[in-house]
């Protein structure tokens, strides 16, 4: 069997949730059945050079193209060309782990992963360019309807596909993503690398802090987190660390932090290197992820796997991902979030419970299992 896989999402060289999904899934997928031949569609006029071992495997072939993606999307949108399976030299099935436009010929099955439909629920959280991109070029609804099979990363996303796009639920398989094995509780007394002191200096981290990690954008409700932190800070001497890259419409977030009376207690780290993430989580007293909407949500799982008490919103996919292993709050209720942070910081029995249950919950999410279930769908 020959399977084509779209890896255009990796061209920018960033690692948001979608990139994490693609990188981890493929790393495990290619190891399952060596007789299956995979052809990777990697296209962009300018793209990041891949540093993975995939192309070195005998059953994986990297197909590099330099078609400008804007031109490609326009051609796909209005002419349904070029047929990607033909560009790849022929495949039985084409897997698109994002919802980029992907024309294929009638004899090729198309499978796609849908991560979330946040742009349908909260268009105001996206830049006008992003909204135009989604509406006129991405054509998510049409792509979803044209796919033979859809993988949804959560039951929440499956429900959205059924309710918003009218997709037959029998066409959709819910396959949860995994959590990396590198995310484990770290005992700094054992001097495990990377050294805590090095990470603190590298990112200017304080001694005691609450952590948010993710994209810096409105959907993540960082303004609400800062407001809740201000209420908490009136009673407790602790700092807030906001880690991650800028997304879009981030200016109000930085403005809110700059105007805060506790602005000196709010630290923005910027980009976090992948190898530093486990130590970053381990250094935090508490992890808070008050996002308005998530298709899955990697950071809470990573934090829980690392033994960090975690707070999340009670919205979209987050309750099904964290189960009963994290505190859940209304993302619109600042006082509730502030109270939850205080309880998670000061109640020792609650902290022990959250740490124990969080580690247990994270173990339920395996990339090996995700890859096996994905391959089953690809072979149907």
TrEMBL record:
Protein name (Swiss-Prot/TrEMBL): Glycosyltransferase family 1 protein
Residue ranges occupied by any Glycosyltransferase subfamily 4-like N-terminal domain in the UniProt entry: 17-179
Record domain Glycosyl transferase family: where: 206-360
A GO MF term: glycosyltransferase activity
Gene source species: Candidatus Portnoybacteria bacterium CG_4_10_14_0_2_um_filter_43_36
Cross-referenced InterPro entries: Glyco_trans_1, Glyco_trans_4-like_N
Keywords: Transferase
Biological process terms in GO annotation: lipopolysaccharide biosynthetic process
């Amino acid at each position: 069997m020959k399977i084509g896989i779209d890896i255009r999402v990796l061209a920018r060289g960033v690692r948001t949730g979608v990139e994490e999904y693609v990188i981890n899934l493929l790393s495990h997928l290619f190891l399952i059945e060596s007789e299956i031949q995979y052809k990777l569609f990697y296209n962009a006029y300018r793209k990041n050079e891949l540093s993975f071992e995939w192309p070195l495997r005998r059953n994986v072939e990297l197909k590099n193209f330099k078609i400008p993606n804007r031109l490609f999307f326009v051609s796909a949108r209005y002419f349904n060309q070029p047929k990607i399976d033909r560009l790849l030299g022929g495949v039985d099935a084409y897997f698109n782990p994002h919802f980029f436009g992907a024309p294929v010929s009638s004899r090729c099955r198309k499978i796609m992963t849908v991560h979330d439909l946040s742009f349908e629920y909260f268009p105001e959280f996206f830049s006008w360019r992003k909204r135009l991109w989604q509406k006129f070029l991405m054509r998510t609804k049409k792509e979803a309807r044209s796919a033979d099979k859809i993988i949804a990363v959560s039951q929440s996303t499956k429900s959205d596909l059924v309710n918003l796009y009218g997709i037959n639920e029998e066409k959709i398989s819910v396959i949860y993503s995994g959590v990396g094995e590198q995310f484990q509780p770290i005992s700094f007394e054992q001097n495990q690398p990377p050294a805590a002191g090095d990470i603190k200096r590298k990112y200017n981290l304080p001694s005691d802090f609450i952590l948010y990690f993710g994209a810096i954008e409105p959907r993540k409700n960082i303004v609400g987190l800062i407001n809740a932190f201000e209420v908490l800070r009136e009673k407790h001497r602790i700092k807030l660390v906001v880690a991650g890259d800028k997304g879009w419409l981030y200016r109000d977030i930085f403005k809110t932090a700059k105007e805060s009376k506790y602005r000196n207690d709010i630290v923005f780290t910027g980009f976090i290197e992948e190898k530093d993430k486990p130590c970053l989580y381990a250094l935090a007293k508490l992890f808070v992820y008050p996002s308005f909407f998530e298709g899955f949500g990697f950071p809470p799982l990573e934090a829980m796997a690392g033994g960090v008490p975690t707070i999340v919103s009670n919205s979209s996919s987050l309750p099904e991902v964290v189960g009963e292993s994290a505190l859940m709050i209304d993302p619109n209720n600042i006082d509730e979030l502030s109270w939850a942070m205080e309880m998670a910081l000061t109640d020792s029995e609650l902290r022990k419970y959250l740490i124990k249950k969080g580690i247990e919950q994270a173990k339920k999410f395996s990339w090996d299992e995700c890859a096996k279930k994905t391959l089953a769908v690809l072979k149907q």
